[in-house]
UniProtKB/TrEMBL annotation:
<dbReference type="Pfam" id="PF07687">
    <property type="entry name" value="M20_dimer"/>
</dbReference>
<dbReference type="GO" id="GO:0046872">
    <property type="term" value="F:metal ion binding"/>
</dbReference>
<dbReference type="InterPro" id="IPR017439">
    <property type="entry name" value="Amidohydrolase"/>
</dbReference>
<keyword id="KW-0378">Hydrolase</keyword>
<feature type="binding site">
    <location>
        <position position="170"/>
    </location>
    <ligand>
        <name>Mn(2+) 2</name>
    </ligand>
</feature>
<feature type="domain" description="Peptidase M20 dimerisation">
    <location>
        <begin position="218"/>
        <end position="312"/>
    </location>
</feature>
<dbReference type="InterPro" id="IPR044757">
    <property type="entry name" value="ILR1-like_Hyd"/>
</dbReference>
<comment type="similarity">
    <text>Belongs to the peptidase M20 family.</text>
</comment>
<keyword id="KW-0472">Membrane</keyword>
<keyword id="KW-0732">Signal</keyword>
<dbReference type="GO" id="GO:0009850">
    <property type="term" value="P:auxin metabolic process"/>
</dbReference>
<feature type="binding site">
    <location>
        <position position="136"/>
    </location>
    <ligand>
        <name>Mn(2+) 2</name>
    </ligand>
</feature>
<dbReference type="InterPro" id="IPR011650">
    <property type="entry name" value="Peptidase_M20_dimer"/>
</dbReference>
<feature type="binding site">
    <location>
        <position position="194"/>
    </location>
    <ligand>
        <name>Mn(2+) 2</name>
    </ligand>
</feature>
<dbReference type="InterPro" id="IPR036264">
    <property type="entry name" value="Bact_exopeptidase_dim_dom"/>
</dbReference>
<keyword id="KW-0479">Metal-binding</keyword>
<dbReference type="GO" id="GO:0016787">
    <property type="term" value="F:hydrolase activity"/>
</dbReference>
Length: 435
């Protein structure tokens, strides 16, 4: 009996020691992986900074990213990475690895904003009225950096990485055009990142589930009958009708939406009349709708039309509503996949340390990354650029927006690890063996 007990204890201890030994080995492998990847990315820092500055000095708006796209293609040619072009006008899809499944996609956006840069520095935008104020110059550079790193490691890749350089994130729904032209290919998952001035360089923040809003714009026209302001009874006053309509709209979010389901309805412009003594024939107003669910946005759009038409009718006016879908396609909500959240968390902790991977905040801004997520699981993370020392403190879309370029090699390494480790983990999936 005593012998059996000793034997069990022996087996138990052996298993325990083996597990401990394996975990030490695993830890050492993890550390080697991190050190090697980060140091390779750091070696490319000067190149990354110079690419980012070239893009920053020459910002291009939605679907006009011709020079940016040419620069990326020239660099891919030099590195020796094959790609498809043009996709969605200026878009590029580069492919690295075995060419077989599993396939994982990484995405960066290339467009700038119609904004005058007010930062006085050596590499300020050379184009008046255009600026990379949302960090897309950094996203593009980080993904190009990842292309180089993945190419150095291509013989080890257990599948294929597809790198999507897309146009027109700022309102043009470039992602939906990329999809229509086959950019996703056989990709089964996609990762994207956005710079974040709220968290320090070297850190990332993650939000599982809904993180960014479904968004759209609208413009309404309320028509009455204009006339002299001294005789309102002989007019049909569209100013009063529009005022009632705008106030009634506020109740859609305060009275009709579930308080636990975030929604925004903002009227941001109004035009009507040009004289103190004349009631105008019509009034135009417009704004934006937002919801953390795509379904919530559809309901809000429907009710917006009903309320404006109803209020116009009460005041004897006619209303027409334009959802501006041609010019500004509605964006679905960004919804981060739960299992990819586990992956990003694990990779982030491995590469940056657990203390530098935090829970992020949901925001009612939109992002066309959501179009990819309608088709395959995707995850969009925020990468920190905050550094008071270099003035990297302003939010995106500010004319003072400024990036800490130390974040560039970190982003390149992170994109690389997200793809490489995803392929390692999904190599033996049963689905890939069957198809
Ligand atoms: Zn933006
Ligand atoms: Zn952006």
């Amino acid at each position: 009996m005593a012998a059996i007990t000793t034997w069990i204890a022996h087996v138990f201890l052996s298993v325990l020691f083996s597990l401990a030994y394996l975990s030490v080995i695993r830890g050492r492998l993890d550390q080697d992986y991190r050190d090697q990847l980060l140091s390779s990315a750091q070696k490319d820092k000067d190149w990354l900074v110079s690419i980012r500055r070239q893009i920053h000095e020459n910002p291009e708006l939605c679907f006009q990213e011709h020079n940016t796209s040419a620069l990326i293609r020239q660099q891919l040619d030099q590195i020796g990475i094959p790609y498809s072009y043009p996709i969605a006008g200026t878009g590029i899809v580069a492919q690295i690895g075995s060419g077989s499944k599993p396939v994982v996609a990484l995405r960066a956006d290339m467009d700038a904003l119609p904004l005058q840069e007010l930062v006085e520095w050596e590499h300020k935008s050379k184009i008046d009225g255009k600026m990379h104020a949302c960090g897309h110059d950094a996203h593009t550079t980080m993904l190009l950096g990842a292309a180089k790193l993945l190419n150095q490691r291509k013989d080890r890749l257990k599948g294929t990485a597809r790198l999507l350089f897309q146009p027109a994130e700022e309102g043009g729904a470039g992602a939906s055009h990329m999809i229509r032209e086959g950019a996703l290919g056989d990709a089964e998952a996609i990762f994207g990142m956005h710079i974040d001035n709220g968290s320090p360089t070297g850190s990332i923040t993650l939000v599982p589930g809904p993180v960014l809003a479904a968004t759209c714009f609208f413009e309404a026209k309320i028509e009455g009958v204009g006339g002299h302001a001294a005789g309102p009874h002989s007019t049909v006053d569209p100013i009063v009708a529009a005022s009632f309509a705008i106030l009634a709209l506020q109740q859609l979010t305060s009275r009709e939406a579930d308080p636990l389901h975030s929604q925004v309805l903002s009227v941001t412009l109004i035009r009507g009349g040009s004289a103190f003594n004349t009631i105008p024939p019509y009034v135009e107003f417009g704004g934006t709708l937002r919801s953390l669910t795509t379904d919530g946005l559809h309901k809000l759009q429907q009710r917006l039309k009903e309320v404006i038409k109803g209020q116009a009718a009460v005041h004897r006016c006619n209303a027409s509503i334009d959802m501006k879908e041609e010019e500004f396609p509605p964006y679905p909500a960004v919804f981060n996949d739960d299992s990819l959240h586990q992956h990003v968390q694990k990779v982030g902790r491995l590469l940056l340390g657990p203390e530098n991977v935090k829970v992020g905040k949901k925001v009612m801004a939109g992002e066309d990354f959501s179009f990819y997520q309608e088709l395959i699981p995707g995850f969009m993370l925020s990468i920190g650029i905050r550094n008071e020392g270099v003035g990297s403190i302003h939010p995106p879309h500010s004319p003072y927006f400024f990036i800490d370029e130390d974040a560039l090699p970190i982003g390149a390494a992170l994109y690389t690890a997200l793809a490489e480790l995803y392929l390692n983990e999904n190599e033996h999936s049963i689905l890939h063996q069957i198809f």
